[in-house]
Amino acid sequence: MSRSLAAIALAAGVLTVGVLVAGCAGGIQSTDIFIVQRTGSVPGAHLTLLINEEGGVQCNGGPMLKLSDPALVQARAIQEELHEDELAARHTVLPPQPGSVLSYYLRDEDGSVRFADNSAREPKVFRNLALLVLQTAQQICHLPM
After folding, report:
1. pLDDT digits (tens, 9 = 90+) for 82-121
2. What is the distance between the alpha carbons of residues 72 and 70, in angstroms, rounded to a whole number?
3. Cα dihedral value 49, 141, 121, 124, nearest 10
4. Half-sphere exposure (Cβ direction) of 42: Cα atoms closer than 13 Å
5. 3-state class of 55 per DSSP?
6. How far apart are CA 142 and CA 145, in angstroms?
7. In DSSP terms, which residues pair with 115 in a beta bridge?
8. pLDDT tens-digit profile of 52-90?
9. Which end of the chain has a smaller Cβ tally under 10 Å, C or N?
10. Residues with Cβ < 8 Å from 134, sequence gap 6 or more?
11. How far apart are CA 36 and CA 59, in angstroms?
């Protein structure tokens, strides 16, 4: 009988570890502010940024680097505005206009947004996000754009 209980406990432990690992792989964790994917038709446009609460930033899956304090404050302000306006929770999508060069997809714990560099009716928070992505790409990731 104790052997059966031990086997059940072991199976439950393995299942719990598997669920925890699956939850961490590729998803937003509670310590992450957001993940942004930028794509486009110009060289260097493809970029994935993961920004966390401690000011860490990961560029294209590379090593964790450090954001400046002002950039971290800006990232938190962007997340707060997305939350207040419920843009991510409503999964806001603003399609690109003709001539678009860059597209953005942001995902956080509330939801996601999609927009392009020339989307109509683009809220200021989207322009702030695009600027944060550009500055982080150049200053932290050492990418041309």
Report:
1. 999 999 999 999 999 999 999 999 999 999 999 999 999 9
2. 5
3. 100
4. 11
5. coil
6. 9
7. 104
8. 999 999 999 999 999 999 999 999 999 999 999 999 999
9. N
10. 145
11. 10
Residues 96 and 122: beta-carbon distance below 8 Å: no
Angle at 19 between CA 36 and CA 3, to 5 degrees: 165
8 A C-beta contact, residue 92 and residue 66? no
pTM for this model (two decimals): 0.79
Number of CB atoms found within 10 A of residue 110's CB: 17
Residues present in the chain in total: 145
Identify which of 125, 85, 105 has the alpha carbon closest to the alpha carbon of residue 28. Answer: 105
Amino acid at 83: H
Contact 96, 103 (CB under 8 A): yes
SS3 assignment, position 51:
strand
Q: pLDDT class for 5, splitting at 50, 70, 90?
A: very low
